[in-house]
Amino acid sequence: MPTEVKTNMKRPIKYFLIALLVGVALYNAVYFQPLDDRNAAKKKSVFDPDAFAGAFIETKLKELPAIKADQFLESLKQDLGQFTAEKGRKLGISNDYYFIVEGNARVLGIEEENVRISLDVENAAELRLATEFIFGNTIREASGMANIGDFQNTMDFNNISVAVNERVRSDIIPPFLSEVKEGDDIYFKGAVKVNTKKPNLENLRIVPLILEIK
Amino acid sequence: MGRRFFSDVVKFITPIILAMILLGCVRKDGNAPKKIAVVISTLNNPWFVVLGESAAQKARDLGYETTIFDSQNNTAKEAEHFENLIAAGYSAVLFNPTDAEGSVSNVNRAKQAGIPTFCMDREVNSLEGPVTQIISDSFSGCVDLGQYFVRQMNKKGKYVELLGLVGDNNTWNRSKGFHSVVDHFPDLKMVAQQSADFDRNKAMEVLESVLQSNPDIDAVFCGNDAMAMGAYQALVSAGKADSVMVFGFDGTEDVMNAIKNKKIMATAMQSPKFMAQTAAELADKYLKGERNMDRKMPITVEVVTQDNISEFDAYGSEN
């Protein structure tokens, strides 16, 4: 058989083998998936601060350990440094310490940004419950609901504060403000920040988590 | 026979001699001080110069040889620095990354080579790569700055926001902190939001351009002090320096002076000296065997205004 005919016969086999190799390579390199499935999977792997904050507000508030507000104030007056170091939470290197406090109180006045209250104890101190300007990390840090070391991107960690503050603004404060009036007796639980460099104990501001009119 | 024997001997001895020469090159002197590399995103900004020099100085005080590498805000340049410092046998890296995502591979490469990395000021999106990340709590700083901004603006007016590098997490933590406050006041309108890459000249150019289409703004919020100074220059050129409030972030010397002179309203003080010194101390502890370190250590940022400026000094030392 002439060499040329032999070569012509081999050519289809050669092409078949190349096509087979390319086919096998592409089969493993390319795959198709419905866009909805893909988006759902992507969403699952993205941290959802709203869901995280929602779960906290809906399930954790009642059991959240709190210090009695009068004991808290008394302890701060007695030894601010020791009390904050032993009982407070703080984020990284800071002079800001955070606490969850609770108590019974009487409403003294309703102001633009706060409700002024007097604790239901002898020689009662005055405190302020924040109803406006609810921003920052006070709730997140006081409650210990999240640890920065668990978050690859600090923005996710900070978005928890944004989401939880939003829930307080939308779910906790409006129903309380619509009913509360001066002289009402209330129960409160909330988060508070104390700066050890500038304590300003007379003007502590509690970000509310639970507000009940008795 | 003689020539063949000679050739065999040469073939046998040559690799040994070469190996000995190479080993001699990398042989470590047990008494020589260990080396710490300080890799900084850019030395074209005085704040980062203070960060780099403070880190190097502290490391020298702790007994290390140091070299400062300038990445010029370029991840490729930064990767080159990491290749060099790995080859040169540095013991640790005090690292100010250029990009939260783009810098992760450099940190990982150093880790694979057994060189621990300590991030300063800016974070990378990795919990496993760096030993620890000492970062400013930019979000909280801008929440406080945002509240001050709202009160100074009486809850209404038009403003411009100048963002930093879009690949840096600090840019978005600052912006997010600011907007977590300001966006709740519907009479505060943001007329433009543009990146000026943390750069003074670029900020001036961007604001000059924005002012042409929005000449009636009341304030400019800037993601760092360099941009605040650039924005202020643009306002001076436009004859609006007295009517438009400028807010920065960092606590650099020129902005602190500008606040004293009532030219700039406020900044958020983050201390490059403190961050750098903390990073150097932690690197020293790590090299001496300490392993119990938090993955991230945020440092509080404080708002500096025309009212409390006397309590502060530039770059974070308090009066």
TrEMBL record, chain A:
Gene3D superfamilies in alphabetical order: Envelope glycoprotein gp160, DUF2291, alpha/beta domain, Envelope glycoprotein gp160, DUF2291, helical domain
Cited InterPro entries: TM0957-like_sf, UCP033535_lipo
Keywords: Lipoprotein
Pfam name, any one: DUF2291
Superkingdom field: Bacteria
Listed name of the protein: Predicted lipoprotein
Species of the source: Kriegella aquimaris
TrEMBL record, chain B:
GO molecular function, one term: carbohydrate binding
A Pfam family this chain is assigned to: Peripla_BP_4
Superkingdom per UniProt: Bacteria
Subcellular locations according to the entry: Cell envelope
The protein's name: Monosaccharide ABC transporter substrate-binding protein, CUT2 family
Keywords for this protein: Signal
Naturally occurring in which organism (per UniProt): Kriegella aquimaris
Tagged with keyword Signal: yes
Family per similarity comment: Belongs to the bacterial solute-binding protein 2 family.
Domain Periplasmic binding protein: 36-290
GO CC annotation: cell envelope
